[in-house]
Write a structure and sequence with these properties.
98 residues; 0% helix
Length: 98
């Protein structure tokens, strides 16, 4: 292993499904690898590696204090399972109801 990666070990490599639909390879940060779960709500974090390069990573989204206080999610960790039909996700013709 290259010495520059040692501070990041262990790390979590994940495919995050964005709310807009695309899937993104990334890392889950700011939590223990043991705490990462499939479909875990996450939010974006920008890691400025150098002045010229920024990596997009994700961290666990804060937990809503009550059921009626929704958490704004930017995506969820994917496990390769199929999505439920669009009508079960509140979508019609590929568009989510707001």
């Amino acid at each position: 292993m290259h010495p520059s990666f040692r501070p990041d070990v262990p790390y979590v490599y994940a495919i995050v499904e964005l709310d807009e639909g695309p899937h993104m390879p990334t890392n889950i940060v700011e939590c223990s690898p043991d705490d990462v779960t499939v479909d875990m709500p996450v939010e974006v974090v920008f890691d400025d590696v150098t002045q010229e390069m920024t990596l997009v990573k994700f961290k666990p989204a804060p937990i809503a204090p009550a059921e009626d206080a929704p958490v704004e999610e930017t995506g969820a960790v994917e496990a390769g399972a199929e999505k439920p039909p669009a009508e079960e996700r509140g979508e019609e013709d590929g568009h989510r109801e707001e």
